[in-house]
Amino acid sequence: MVDLNNVSESLQRGDAEKVEELVRGALGENLLPKDILENGLIKGMDIIGAKFKKNEVYVPEVLIAARAMHAGMSILRPKLAETGVKNIGTVAVGTVKGDLHDIGKNLVIMMLEGAGFEVIDLGIDVPVDKFVEAVTKYKLNVLGMSALLTTTMIQMQEVIKAISDAGLRDKVKIMIGGAPITQNYADQIGADGYSPDAASAVDKAKTFIA
Ligand code: B12
Questions:
Q1: Helix (H, G, I), strand (E, B), or coil: what is residue 195?
Q2: Cβ 112 under 6 angstroms from ligand 1
Q3: 53 C-beta neighbours (distance < 10 Å), count
Q4: Which of 60, 82, 104 is the last residue of a domain?
Q5: Do residues 61 and 99 share a domain?
Q6: pTM
């Protein structure tokens, strides 16, 4: 019997091979993909995230845990799609121009995918035009922007302005995040929402499509 706590613990150790093996095993035992995701992978990543905030683990540990999460997700993703976690909305997420930080963005993407969103990863260092283009190209419900630098967060305002100028502001909900971002800042630049972490980003995206 695969114990999902082992999935969570292997993920926290960053043991990608073990995570893959346990996820395969759990699927073989007919555990629900949604349970494996929530009680194994996401649980482990949540614990790492909380420890990171308290400085109990550092960036390398976060990175290898995220890699293990990816490994588990690669096995789980097709099954999630099959078992009726259907596309509940389309979201594109990118890190703004000048900014190369992508660990948080990737976590947000993984959590959104796990919750049943179709997610387009726009990558890092994304220019304003590419965000604007994505709105119509992918018929987005939600556009997410990430920034980790105080010098790049101002790009978010540029993107929102460009989307308004293109006459698309009422077509898409915009949510923003990253360490220097606050609800106050989101209000100030006219974003529809802000989330401090990946789990609440999913809740926020769900409220937009409800
Ligand atoms: C890892 C890291 C790097 C790595 C990035 C690797 C990578 N692939 O991402 C490297 C080494 C490349 C790097 C480079 C730099 N970095 Co750096 N980096 C960090 C560090 C240590 C951790 C960031 C991280 O990954 N956190 C973990 C993730 C999980 O958290 P997160 O990103 O906050 O994401 C969560 C939430 O914010 C939210 N979220 C994130 N995005 C989004 C998006 C949406 C839509 C939503 C809803 C939510 C959301 O959900 C996420 C998951 O819970 C931070 C310090 C810190 N404590 O934040 C500095 C930090 C961000 N870096 C900093 C600096 C200065 C730099 C450099 C300029 C350093 C230099 N002199 O070269 C360069 C800039 C490069 C560039 N142009 O981007 C400063 C920024 C200072 C500031 N106020 O602007 C920080 C704060 C360090 C410091 N204390 O000085 N960095």
A1: coil
A2: no
A3: 11
A4: 82
A5: no
A6: 0.85
Taking CA atoms, 187 is separated from 157, 184, 201, in Å, by 11, 5, 16
Number of separate domains in the chain? 2
28 and 107 in a common domain: no
- Which tens digit of pLDDT belongs to each residue from 110-150? 778 777 789 999 999 999 999 999 999 999 999 999 999 99
Provide the CB-side half-sphere exposure for 172 (13 A, CA): 31
Element (H, E) at 46: helix 43-53
| Ranges of H-type helices in 138-197 | 154-165, 183-189
- From 140, 148, 152, 175, mutation site for ligand 1 pocket: most ligand atoms within 8 A of C-beta: 148
Task: Please check whether residues 193 and 98 belong to one and the same domain.
Answer: yes
Domain, as residue range, for 36: 4-82
Determine whether the shortest distance from the Cβ of 149 to ligand 1 is under 6 A: yes
C-beta 94 within 6 A of ligand 1:
no
